[in-house]
Amino acid sequence: MRRLVIRPGGLGDLLLTLPALAHLAERLRAEIEIAGDPARLALLAGSPYATRCLSLEELGLHALFTPDPPPELLARLRAYDAIVSWFGAGDPVYRAHLEALGPPVVIARGTPAPEARVHVSRHLLLTLAPLLPPPPEIPPVRLAPTARER
Predict the structure, then answer these.
(1) Which of 42, 51, 97, 143 is the most exposed place for a label (fewest CB within 10 A)?
(2) What pLDDT is attached to residue 45?
(3) What domains can you pick out in the chain, each with its CATH number?
């Protein structure tokens, strides 16, 4: 089983996403490919939270904001068993293309609405509800330094 997680943003965004990635990895026992900023995603190398890291540019997601994205991109995305996108939630064209793909898709804001008064990590976990129930507590996460970083 292959899952794609789309999560652009900076270092803080990635760190706040780790509990949701940990929950996906632990509960679904699936390969998780994450698309975002390669410089930030390098932190996940060798971690249990991502099998593979892709740059948003490499994936070509910008084409989903156009009326006719390339068939190759759509075929590539259809190969995933599920897609979680914490990106593009407010764009109806992007949403329509992802939702039409076939595999289960979660498209949600990367941050909670201000009135929600919920921590970002909890918000991201709650958005995964269509795929799996959220945990009662935010899962602990740990990133180990690589041999070069020690």
Answers:
(1) 42
(2) 83
(3) 2-127 (3.40.50.2000)
